[in-house]
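Backbones bend. To wit:
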Amino acid sequence: MSALTLNKIRFHGGVWEGVIDSADTPGSQPGVTVRLLDRKIDGVTLRAAETAGSWHLSIPVPAEALGDGVQCFVIYDEATGTKLGDFTVISGEPLADDLRAEIALLRAELDMLKRAFRRHCLETA
């Protein structure tokens, strides 16, 4: 288990920002790796924050990651390989159709479950 905790600050101007708090070793800078589709993201910066044991994390979103669909960035502690957090970028016009289709599928499954539950209640009553 990692002794690091990650908290999001904001996502603005193509840069995701957060704060990493280090409980065990407040003086030493932690190692952080960010991956997209199992590819390491370059340009990640980690600098000391105002609070002791805290580090400001900046992750630039590469332009090639922006396009139709969903892109998930995963943030890891290098020392332990533990996942600290993640963030997702969703973009593109076809996405609206995809989401509507998923919602329609979820509604259909929910209706099916409601019917099965009602049938079960009638049979066991």
Notes: The chain has two domains: 4-91, 93-125. The beta strands are 4-12, 15-22, 32-36, 39-40, 45-48, 54-60, 69-77, 83-91. The helical segments are 94-124. The first helix runs from residue 94 to 124.
